Amino acid sequence: MKKALALILALVMVLTLAACGGSSTDSEAQTPADEGDKTVKIGVLVSDVSGEEALGFRAYYEDYIAKNYNVTFTYTEQLEDAAAEKAAIEKFAAQGYDAILSLAASDRATQIETCEANGLYYAVVSGMLDDAQFEQYKGNEHFVGQIGPSMDTEYEAGYAMGQYFAQQGVKTVGIYGAFIPNPMHVYRTAGVLAGLGCTYGGASDKDGIAGQLFGDQGVDMSKVACGDIQIVGYFQGFGDTTFDELFAIIGQQPDAFLSVGMATTFFADSLNGANIPYSDIDSFTSGNAANMADGTLTYLAGKYSSSIGPIFAATLNAVNGNPIRDAEGNAISISQSYLVATDSATFDSIFNGDKGDSPIFSKDVLDTVIGAVSYDDFVKLVESK
Amino acid sequence: MDNEAILRKYKLRQKLINILPVAALAVLFTILVVTVQAKGYRLDMYLKIVFNEGVVLAVVATGAVFIYTLGSFDISLGASTLFSATMGVMTYNATGSLALMILVIFGAAVGCSLLSSVLASVFHIPVFVTTVAMMSVLSAIAAQIITTNGGAVGGISIPSALVKPLDNMGFKIAALAVFWLVCFFVFSFTKIGRRQKFLGGNPVCAQLTGIQVNKYAIIAFVMAGLGVGLGAFLTLVYTPSVTATTAGSIGMNIVVAIVFGGMPISGGPRSRIYAALVGGFSYILLNNILKLLIDSNIGYGVSQIVSAVFFLAVVYVTGLNYRSQMLPR
Amino acid sequence: MKASKKIIGTLAIPVITAAVLLILCAASGKSMIANRTGFNYFTLYAAIVMITTMALSINLNSGRFDFSLGAMAVLASVLSAKITYGLLSGGAGSAALMLCLNVVIGALLGLVSGGLYVTLRIPPIITSLGVTLIYEGVTFTITGGKYVMTEVRNASMTAFAGNWYWPALIILAVLAFIIYLFDHTRFGYDYKALQSGQKVAVNTGIREVPNALWCYVICGALMGVVGFLNVARSANINGGSLNFGSIGIMFTAFLPMFIGGYIGRFSNDKVGYLMAALCMSMLNSTFAAFSNEISASTQSIINAVLLVVFLIYLNNEGLLKKILSPRKA
Questions:
Q1: Are C311 and B128 in contact (CB under 8 A)?
Q2: Domain spanning B18-322 has what CATH number?
């Protein structure tokens, strides 16, 4: 009897939960916020809560933008998968949020569809959809757009890094492929190989190399052919063997160590200690300033924290009824390049120029594109920095 | 106090303890409703979200109850869910057949489960260690498939339109109810459930009465496999894509859910088929309540601490009737 | 057992492993340990594996499953790194102070974990789930989910990681301490009695609760050392692990624990753990040498298959000997 009672209670509870939830219909979507004094509520999806770049972005939104505009940012916890991303968007919708800015990339297609279903504006921050996906969703009313490095930009960033060291006359290099098969790391690594003047499986172009790297899940050294430069070692990922692999390379005293991400977090100490010049694609932080000034970091391609300002402006405009669309009425898609520093002076000028209360995309700058603004003016501003 | 009064008091306490998990679910449900209302959020949406978050966990954990009843422990169910979903997506993308995709999902899930079971029972390897190895292998294979085929998108997916018609409460409730009722029937009204409880409670005695351990272990793993298969399918219904991290948190949450639902981790006669359902939803409700109440980034750490303390408190109280003089193992 | 058999039995697996791996490397024109730096990290990894295995086995051999080992190591490291940096600002002696603090804080965390277990008297596996969540939550709250880097990057730590004799010294010290404690003290005798017959041991007057508490304290202290060694190895601490993200460290210790247990038949199980750790470190160095050919996924699969194959052998040894031995006419 008591078991039956417990069971009935449990079932009633679960079914009530389901039934109440089921009563929601997609038609009950949020309406765009009215212009005026209403605080705009923006939810931010994140898959990285620890990285320097992620922390820099967060500080810009929470400490600068939120203080200068009538807007609140709510960050999610670290979203591990597509289901977590979708649930997070639905929770923001349930809490009456106006828009979603996404720094999480497990399933951007589902993110857009979920935002559309719930009437939330959506933008990709510091990244880009795959071309086919963008084509599919660019006409979506709630899709504000995307500003960030495209895969072409990632390739070019890697290429420029490789080319820089080749021009410096290095003869031996080690390469860290970060988290291949993460697409951006694949394209950066493809760029590094091409920039160093290497071919991969006979290919020397972006798609030829990147396509093979996806298939190989990394760099298969037997497929690499370089001219004068010798790649003394390659490794990727972060696990039990990582430091063995790093030190196998350090042991060969290469002229340079090229990383396509996270080296300044994981290996800065070891590389500085071994006096090996190294490069990374990361961000302009105080830690990296010290690595460049006192250590052996010689090349840093990075985003600056306020580079995510324009996408906020575009999203705010959309929420306030001033969406920025291109001539065909499609969402924004602007590729943003990396800034590069090869010496402390350049590094400091970028780093100090984008700090705290005086970011590159300051309120004054952003105000020029907040309100009714043309697509061309908006693009011009983004590309000017 | 006479013996009868002591007995009455003991029985009352036992009754209260037995209904505690369900009472906790009711209380948590009420708190969520009140919190959401007080904050002015949309209750209907919140309840739908909680149901969506809980349904996969409840389904997989309900199947896992059969394994836990035997006193065994399977840590690979999250990886099995990922692997099954991966195989399903690959099948659909190769054949374009939804029916075949579903078949492969269930086939892969039951196959993985059976492999664990066979390794454990035929080669006499401890079940837990077998499932640790299976977890590594299945995650690694799935990751390899996903990353090789995911390309620049980083994951593999089926067209969202394919499963969208099923992404509604009616279908999910029906799927949960049918699976749960089948499990309830097998667990409570057939000799399978009774014998599994016997085996979990006293394996030596059960074997001496002629019960075949391997047979019932295999049945338990098949039931768990069915739960994994349904869980993998429901995962795809909610989000039609699979990445290397899909279902990553399910593995350990199953243990938490089952224990939260009032079932002892040692299995045996006190095993309850409804434990996973009650515990799974309770755990999801608790986490959501805490995230509603504790804001900010740091709050995620604090809410996990509070959640863990609550979890330990519930397990402590539900286990009050079963204290032994020695320390439990 | 003859001394020669003991020596051969103890050294056989590491020697065979070394021979196989060296031949594999030589055949491919690679070297397992290329230079002194490689040897430094080989020793460091061997120390990490050996001490983690010991920490896991202390409670597991007594039927107490502890998921919180990883969380304990990380939390101990975060706290000691913050304190050390606060006191010495990364100056001379930072590594030594951090190691000492790691041991003390690890022991305290172990005491809390054990205290919860003996107070709540719920199965240790459940307690450890709760404790894992709590420690992860505390770590996240202290670090804000960020990497701890500045506090652990200094010349003192670099010097420690750059000299193989420091980890070697730690291996010897821990090995001697654990052998003395478990094989030559009253505590160790009680531990073994409780391990082989809990009820009988308790009935003969052995005090189980203090013994269990000490086990947790020792485990905690050992994981404190592991936490320190991990920091020395990677020069950062990831403070962002939530929802059981820290339990992975435990799974890496299963294979060496079983190998060590097997080798222990010929000498001492603790020496077995050292031998097994050397094997695992050799395997790790070989994986590193073959990193371009063997992906991380493949490494996981190889480790899991080795675990299963070894366990199949271990659990069917009698049967295998019977099958392989020449039949009598």
A1: no
A2: 1.10.3470
